[in-house]
Design a protein that fits this description.
The chain is an alpha/beta fold. The strands form four sheets. The protein has a six-stranded mixed beta sheet with strand order 10-9-8-11-15-14, sandwiched between helices. A five-stranded antiparallel beta sheet has the order 3-2-1-4-5, with no helix packed on it. Bound molecules: guanosine-5'-triphosphate and zinc ion. Zinc ion binds next to helix 12. Keywords: Cytoplasm, GTP-binding, Hydrolase, Metal-binding, Nucleotide-binding, Ribosome biogenesis, RNA-binding, rRNA-binding, Zinc. It is found in: Cytoplasm. This is Small ribosomal subunit biogenesis GTPase RsgA. Belongs to the TRAFAC class YlqF/YawG GTPase family. RsgA subfamily.
Length: 417
């Protein structure tokens, strides 16, 4: 298999043995490299021998994983178990975090977080977690992976996050955790006059800061003759930005978003009111055949002994994968950004080290490389203006005393302007 490894960089990271398997190249050093490939295979999950030429077709793997993502059930202790956890988003990297005495613990994904209670999605279905008296639920986010005692469902500990979305609430305090381990953030906007590049840049900065892959989703494409002008307006907002157009109410939307919604992948939706987030969620989430199972709602007794239904924020996607929808995610705003802005305005961040002053604001300073680029016509003045506005907004919203939460460093990282 030596020759198979040689050109692995250009092959699907999950199936390097199959040339042209899917469009996900193997980039080992890239922390944003996705774990699940488009065709639904995972690195290390499928048995090696099956992946050697005569194994099941990729579509077969996809079908198996789909069924698993929807049921979340384990039938035996063979590969099916691992695949079920993988359908929930479990990865080898998460497994590396387990200590030798932790392999007997259940691995679950947090589905709801309330002040005094939390629920999680396990391989066997949704469960209510037993919290220690001193546990602070504010330290957990929907999408977190946690280790849980099998019999009691006692929460033992949280695993390190891959990505984390958080927001700062009015009145300061620590940022509130919104969602964790989100692979892709769908930034939803419509093909109409409401399209606002500056607003999209805010969401892009948030996605970058969280470590998620942003995708601009242009809805209501069915209401315009040609959506291309809208695509053109957003494509240049960030390097290598992925943009799709769709009708959020049409079943075909699932196909359009399939590259990011494979089994085991987690997405979230952000965007202004009325752009079609709920419509898209309904189209993506499998609601028809078995509502309770698809949404994994839990019936539990409230303080007055009544049975209530806890609506989860982690919804199964019809074709596999998960979409997180929490009230908080709809009201994200800019704060605690550093790398998020650098990625969004990469052309400015790359010039900044050439400025004479390390804390150059690129407004009036002599020896400013950014101003020089604008003067030379290689940098758009409007981009610099929007960068400054966002940078100032971020500075206003971010108390200097705040620090990192979870595993993402949100401040004092990268270049400070
Ligand atoms: N024709 C068409 N209508 C759409 C599309 N997406 C959304 N709509 C309609 O636009 C309206 C708003 O859509 P919602 O899905 O409620 O938007 P939202 O983003 O969830 O709005 P909030 O709940 O206020 O945040 C509804 O009447 C939808 O039917 C689309 O792609 N095509
Ligand atoms: Zn400068």
């Amino acid at each position: 298999m030596g020759d198979q490894v040689d050109d692995r960089q250009s092959r699907c990271h999950a199936r390097p043995d199959v040339p042209q398997h899917c469009a996900r190249p193997f980039v080992a050093a890239d922390p944003t490299a996705r774990r699940a490939c488009i065709a639904g295979w995972w690195l290390g999950v499928q048995p090696r021998q099956k992946g050697r030429g005569n194994g099941p077709a990729p579509q077969a793997g996809l079908a198996l994983a789909r069924a698993d993502a929807q049921s979340g059930r384990v039938t035996d202790a063979t590969d099916q178990t691992v695949l079920s956890l993988a359908a929930l988003g479990w990865t080898e990297a998460l497994g590396d975090q387990l200590g030798p005495d932790e392999t007997g613990l259940d691995r679950m994904r947090v589905a709801t977080v309330h002040r005094a209670r939390m629920t999680a999605m396990s391989a066997q279905g949704p469960v209510r977690l037993l919290l220690a008296p001193q546990a602070n639920t504010a330290d957990y986010a929907v999408g977190d992976w946690v280790l849980v005692e099998p019999e009691t469902h006692r929460l033992i500990r949280r695993l390190d996050r891959n990505t984390v979305l958080q927001r700062r609430t009015e009145g300061g305090g620590a940022p509130q955790l919104i969602a964790a381990n989100v692979d892709t953030l769908f930034i939803v906007t419509s093909c109409n006059d409401d399209l606002n590049p500056a607003r999209l840049e805010r969401y892009l900065a948030l996605a970058n800061e969280a470590g998620t892959t942003p995708v601009i989703v242009l809805t209501k494409a069915d209401q315009v003759e040609d959506p291309q002008p809208f695509v053109d307006r957003v494509t240049g907002l960030q390097r290598d930005l992925q943009v799709v157009t769709l009708n959020a109410k049409a079943p075909e939307a699932v196909e359009v978003l399939a590259p990011w919604c494979g089994p085991g992948q987690t997405v979230a939706l952000v965007g202004s009111s009325g752009v079609g987030k709920s419509s898209l969620l309904n189209t993506l989430a499998d609601k028809a055949p078995d509502e309770a199972q698809a949404t994994g709602d839990i019936r539990e007794s409230d303080a007055k002994g009544r049975h209530t239904t806890t609506s989860r924020s982690l919804h199964a996607i019809a074709g596999g994968g998960w979409v997180i929808d929490t009230p908080g995610i709809r009201t994200l705003h800019v704060s605690d950004l550093s790398v998020g802005l650098d990625v969004l305005f990469a052309e400015i961040a790359e010039l900044a080290p050439d400025c004479r002053f390390r804390d150059c604001t690129h407004a009036h300073e002599p020896g400013c490389a950014v101003l020089a680029a604008v003067a030379a016509g290689t940098l758009d003045q409007a981009r610099v203006d929007r960068w400054r506005k966002l940078w100032e907004e971020n500075r206003t919203n971010t108390p200097v005393t705040s620090g990192p939460r979870g595993n993402k460093t949100t401040l004092a990282r990268g270049k400070r302007y």
